[in-house]
Design goal:
five-stranded mixed β-sheet, two-stranded antiparallel ribbon
């Protein structure tokens, strides 16, 4: 984040530069080229190790995009770096898809060629150096004035010392966190006071930096917010031995399938029909030297959280030139994003590209809206209550809604279409949510050119056509127009409330997610209203529409019960801007704004901590379960039958996962126990297996963790699984083929 913001008020982006100088390669260019050469050698020689893997990843996500972005005049260096990573990701995804679709899977040579070509272009065909001497300075006495924090040497160093102490306490807190079985309250009772103190100190430092009369410098605010993101989003992952979330493992399996086979197979599942993220992950995994996505998937949660925070910060900076507004927006986004959608998944990648696409559109494609919208804005601006409010409390001048520069407009259109194309082949829902928000803005003229809106809609529709029969047959395109059903709404029960039980259950604490969501929405609406009352109509209408538009998706699709989470996630960046406007729309920094912003941020931090860490018992996956699943993937063959408890056992984890997708390949022990009414025997198990599939080999998985969770869910009586395992241990023709501390796998031959 430190590279994204300059002290003071930033200039408008997308303007014609005053000086665009052709130049010889700078020391920075030479450094990039040398790094590219070194990375290419390491990639070709397949030299691994965590530090070298990180180095190769950074180079691959920097050089291709930098070659293109360094040639665009009129861009801030900071935003140029942000878009460099996004452009490189699009290039790498395109290359990975071409290889996966054609079966020409040679990621390391291709990556080395791309890096070497980028390094050569940087040296022999250097870009331009944009210079803009007319950059305006900060407005005096503005509520969002970014006057840097200054003082004596000690007072200037104090925030840094506090952050360093908090980081040390956070590390010590994680090291002393209990490793026992998690209960109904998840990690909340396991995390030591030292951890809570460290997070509280960093939250307080961020609040201090935002509300202080003299704001922290860009570097200090960047480090403070980045520290908060890492502490909140990395803690649970660092305490887990393997990647969190049981549903992560099917994504790992698809990536490993592409790595092992070198191609995608649309007949396998829907992921092979939308393989963008998986192909990119397999490509980068090969480049880094990791052939198993299990080795790096756990870091996706922290990585996507940081990337999204930077993108939201950049968007807020385009919307408002007030440092308090865009830093408050970033903090609200970080502290209200409770939906756990940063994990290793195509939707996380597509969401980041969606934010990048919005950033490009709002930076380069702003236009004058249609006459009917201008008339509507005029009526809003001249409402009686707006006029009276502006007389009593005049607002600061808003950033102008600049018209696009033609040369940059063309490049921006190409960038948006490419980003949408990558989103389209990566995730089924995200491109349509993007269309819901951006299409009306293009049609109404707030964004130009207007044809880009229909083009964004045409891309996902064109990709859906060859997959229409598959999707409609297996999942259905629409789940009805009942918005309450699509949100997963259930009428409240009328049972009598017992306060003691209500307070003491972890399930009740999870309801704080609803409180956090509603609080964010209410504060954002209040911010939109206040912004309108100050007469800032155009930007308010655009941001408010982008916040509301994702909810329109609930009119047609529930997305397997997850639509409500997607709606809040896609609305959150824009709601966060509304919350920031609520506190910092006035022309000066007031005590009421300071108290309000500080209180809101602290309250959100407390609620987020509870909501994020309370359900950890449901998100944890046993390492022993994962090891057992990897053994099964390596030893089972097509046509075998696997029994497991059907309670999120990570069965899909390796390249042979298509074996389990065939009908009858996996069945539940719960169904067998119900079928025999608890009267388990070797004979009944053989008969049941032959009736299901008649497989040659039958595998029965006993996992202590899965058994515990299944019993807690009331799937069967506690004594039945030990009884069945005892029958298998003594059965003729049964072998214990795998065993670790918590998992046993038995095998017996069938009639197949």
């Amino acid at each position: 984040m430190a590279l994204l913001i300059r002290d003071g008020v930033t200039s408008a982006l997308g303007h014609t530069p005053t000086h665009a100088l052709s130049r010889r390669p700078s020391y920075f260019d030479v450094g990039l080229a040398v790094s590219g050469l070194a990375a290419a050698v390491l990639i070709l020689l397949d030299v691994g190790g965590a530090p070298l893997a990180a180095f190769k990843l950074v180079v691959c996500l920097a050089l291709p995009g930098w070659v293109a972005l360094s040639r665009l005049p009129g861009l801030d260096l900071e935003l140029r770096l942000v878009w460099t990573a996004a452009a490189s990701a699009v290039v790498c995804t395109t290359l990975a898809l071409v290889m996966a679709w054609t079966g020409f899977w040679h990621p390391r040579p291709v990556a080395a060629v791309v890096v070497l070509a980028s390094a050569a272009l940087i040296i022999f065909v250097p870009g331009t150096l944009a210079r803009d001497p007319g950059r305006p300075g900060p407005r005096p006495n503005a509520a969002g004035s970014a006057e840097p924090y200054r003082g004596s040497r000690f007072t200037a160093s104090l925030p840094w010392l506090i952050l360093a102490a908090a980081a040390a306490m956070w590390v010590a807190g994680l090291a002393t966190t209990g490793q026992g079985r998690l209960g109904d309250f998840g990690l909340l009772p396991e995390l030591p006071p030292l951890w809570y103190l460290a997070v509280g100190i960093v939250v307080g430092t961020c609040v201090w930096g935002v509300v202080a009369r003299k704001m922290f410098s860009k570097l200090l605010m960047s480090v403070s917010v980045s520290s908060l993101v890492v502490m909140l989003y990395a803690s649970a992952g660092l305490l887990a031995q393997v990647p969190r979330f049981p549903w992560t493992y099917k994504h790992i399996a698809v990536t490993n399938f592409i790595t092992a086979t070198g191609h995608v197979d649309p007949s396998v599942d829907i992921y092979n029909r939308w393989p963008g993220f998986f192909a990119l992950s397999a490509y980068l995994g090969e480049v880094m030297g990791y052939r198993n996505a299990l080795d790096y998937a756990a870091w996706a949660e922290t990585g996507f959280a940081l990337v999204d925070a930077v993108l939201v910060l950049a968007i807020a900076r385009i919307i408002s030139d007030r440092a308090r507004v865009y830093w408050t927006t970033t903090l609200i986004f970080t502290l209200a994003n409770w939906v756990n959608q940063n994990y290793y998944s195509p939707q996380s990648y597509s969401y980041s590209l969606y934010l990048a696409m919005c950033l490009v559109a709002l930076t380069f494609l702003k236009g004058i809206p249609a006459k009917w919208m201008v008339g509507f804005e005029h009526r809003l601006r001249h409402l009686r209550m707006v006029r009276e409010f502006k007389k009593r409390r005049p607002g600061a001048l808003p950033r102008t809604w600049e018209r696009p520069v033609p040369a940059m407009q063309i490049l921006a259109c190409v960038a948006i279409l490419l980003a949408q194309a990558v989103i389209v082949v990566s995730h089924q829902l995200t491109p349509y949510i993007a269309v819901l928000g951006l299409f009306p803005l293009f049609i109404s003229g707030y964004l130009r050119p207007r044809w880009l809106g229909p083009a964004l809609l045409l891309l996902p529709l064109a990709y859906l056509i060859p997959n229409f029969a598959y999707v409609s047959g297996k999942y259905g395109l629409f789940s009805g127009f009942n918005i309450f059903a699509n949100t997963g709404y259930r009428a409240p029960r009328t049972d009598q409330l017992v306060l003691g039980q209500w307070v003491l259950t972890g399930h009740t604490l999870a309801h704080l997610a609803v409180v956090l969501t509603l609080a964010t929405g209410v504060l954002a609406v209040a911010g939109f209203v206040r912004r309108l009352l100050h007469g800032h109509v155009r930007t308010t209408l655009v941001v408010a529409w982008l916040a509301v538009s994702p909810a329109l998706g609930l009119l047609a699709q529930s997305y397997g019960g997850e639509a409500r989470f997607r709606v809040f996630l896609f609305a959150l960046p824009w709601l966060s801007i509304g919350v920031a406007w609520l506190f910092w729309s006035g022309p000066i920094r007031t005590r009421k704004a300071v108290v309000g912003a500080g209180s809101a941020l602290v309250a959100m931090a407390m609620m987020f901590t509870v909501v994020h860490f309370q359900p950890e018992a449901d998100y944890r996956v046993s390492k022993d379960d994962v090891v057992a699943s990897q053994w099964l993937d390596a030893h089972t063959t097509q046509g075998d039958l696997v029994y497991e408890t059907k309670y999120f056992f990570p069965l899909l984890v390796g390249p042979n996962y298509p074996h389990y997708l065939q009908w009858g390949s996996v069945t539940s022990l719960v169904e067998y126990l119900n079928a025999v009414d608890g009267k388990v025997s070797m004979e009944s198990l053989r008969q049941y297996s032959d009736h299901l599939r008649g497989a040659k080999s039958n595998y029965i998985v006993f996992s202590d963790e899965q058994k515990r969770q299944a019993i807690e869910q009331g799937l069967f009586e506690a004594y039945l699984l030990p009884k069945l395992e005892n029958v298998l241990a003594k059965g003729d023709g049964v072998a214990n083929v795998f065993s670790n501390s918590t998992v046993r796998i038995y095998k017996f031959e069938g009639t197949g």
